[in-house]
Design brief:
Blueprint (H helix, E strand, L loop, with lengths): L7 H44 L4 H19 L8 H7 L6 H7 L2 H16 L7 H18 L4 H21 L2 H12 L5 H22 L19 H26 L3 H9 L1 H18 L9 H9 L8 H14 L7 H15 L8 H17 L2 H12 L5 H18 L4 H5 L14 H12 L1
Helix pairs in contact: 1-5, 1-6, 1-7, 2-5, 2-12, 3-4, 5-6, 6-7, 7-8, 8-9, 8-17, 10-14, 10-15, 10-16, 10-18, 12-14, 13-15, 14-15, 15-16, 16-17, 16-18, 17-18
């Protein structure tokens, strides 16, 4: 008896599914190993602090200078958080050559190694943003090996890898989905995407409430009623949004290049500038009592748990340390440090509203500042909601996030990650008759 052979198309479909599933597992495992390595690197730096709190004055400047040198020479495209690179790769006009460059396995390896070295040197960076680039790179590479359709290679698999990266890094699956739609792919009409996202949010909240979930920052039972207590929501939204806008605008202006002699010196001496940033980073660390180094995960968790002994200046100093780390030109993300700085800002606001639980105000500060920096309010309140495992705060978090975005745009009209992605998108040179613009383009290419 002869059995009919499966159709070639069916075999190809199953092959692609297996590649897709194995890719998702690989992204998850890579994120876990990266997290373990990052924690180890952070512990190495803190052991150095035990020896002497002044030892970073030597290690951190030299470390940042070395990282920037290696990045520019051997791993171009790995600098920064990694999210702008993924956004650039999604540009429909982008060439496959550039896409292969920013999502290459070489860049991925460099991203991991240099971020870990940066944490060993005390930089205020996180692993979550780099994990987005790592996830997108893995899925894109596996998709090319399995000969996925061109559309999937150019967008579908990259988006899936980026979403998996966020979900695995923070252990927030719903936030991964929202992040991919809201932040990574802004091609949807805003009204329609918001409607779809709200439907997903309601279903996801119901599921998480029933099944439970491991939470990034543990569990908090803080809540607040609807009424006068909501003044803190408005206040946190305004303060977090304005500070987030200032932070993003500062990084964008540095990225464009400062004018004058200082800007020229930074452009011509990137390694020396990184060393200067390292020195500034240590000075901020000493001013904070050695609390602004690293991603800020432990500090944020102690604030949320109510067990913190951090100085009152922690939030602002963490903001400054994160900005210094980013503008230095090293690989590393800003998502976790931003959440930590937001928690510190919330703790500063808490005494102003004594009738509101301190933990609730800290959480509101966290989501407001995060939304102010990223201008992705839905991602902000979903990711924080999942990380603290508290669905009773969803409406205050949502309101604070949208207020923060509106305030942030007053200072920084364009989202930081999308603005930064312009650096990785090839633009053809303008006509030669436009001498001034042509000179500017050549200068940009030399950067």
């Amino acid at each position: 008896m002869k059995f009919p052979l499966p159709e070639p198309g069916l075999i190809l479909d199953w092959k692609r599914r297996l590649v897709f599933w194995s890719g998702a597992v690989t992204v998850g495992l890579a994120a876990i190993l990266f997290a373990i390595a990052a924690e180890w690197a952070n512990s190495v730096f803190h052991k150095m602090l035990v020896i002497s709190p002044f030892l970073p004055l030597l290690v951190t400047p030299l470390g940042l200078a070395l990282i920037v040198y290696i990045t520019r020479k051997y791993f171009p495209g790995s600098q920064g958080s990694g999210i702008p690179q993924v956004i650039a790769s999604l540009d429909p006009k982008e060439s496959s050559k550039v896409r292969e460059q920013v999502l290459s396995l070489r860049v991925t390896v460099g991203k991991i190694l240099l971020t870990i070295i940066g944490l060993m040197c005390g930089t205020a960076v996180g692993r979550e943003g780099p994990t987005v680039q790592i996830g997108a790179s893995i899925m894109h590479k596996l998709g090319s090996l399995a000969r996925f359709p061109k559309h999937d290679l150019e967008k579908g698999l990259i988006l899936a890898g980026a979403a998996a990266g966020v979900a695995a890094a923070f252990n927030t699956p719903l936030a991964g989905i929202v992040f991919a739609i809201e932040e990574m792919s802004r091609s949807f009409e805003e009204h329609n995407s918001t409607t779809i996202l709200m439907t997903v949010l309601i279903a996801g909240i119901a599921s998480l409430a029933v099944l439970g979930n491991y939470s990034y920052f543990g569990h908090t039972s803080e809540s607040m009623g609807f009424g006068k207590e909501w003044y803190v929501v408005i206040f946190c939204g305004i303060v977090g949004g304005l500070l987030g806008g200032i932070f993003s605008r500062t990084l964008i202006e540095f990225n464009k290049g400062l004018r004058g002699r200082v800007g020229d010196w930074i452009h011509d001496n990137p390694v020396a500038f990184a060393a200067v940033c390292g020195l500034l980073l240590v000075l901020v660390g000493l001013a904070s009592g050695n609390n602004t180094y690293g991603s800020g995960y432990i500090e944020a968790k102690t604030l949320v748990d109510g067990n913190s002994t951090l100085p009152e200046s922690y939030g602002i100093l963490k903001l400054i340390a994160t900005a210094i780390s980013y503008v230095s030109g090293i690989p590393g993300g800003i998502m976790a440090p931003t959440l930590s700085a937001g928690a510190g800002i919330g703790s500063n606001i808490a005494p102003l509203f004594s009738s509101v639980p301190v933990g609730a105000t800290i959480i509101l500060g966290m989501v407001a500042y995060f939304a102010g920096v990223t201008q992705a309010p839905i991602t902000a309140f979903v990711i924080v909601m999942e990380m603290i495992d508290n669905h009773e705060m969803v409406l205050p978090l949502m309101a604070a996030a949208f207020i923060a975005k509106a305030c942030s745009r007053l200072i920084c009209p364009t989202p930081i990650f999308h603005t930064m992605s312009e650096n990785f998108i090839y633009r053809p040179p303008p006509p030669k008759k436009d001498v001034g613009t042509q000179t500017a383009y050549i200068q940009r290419e030399s950067d």
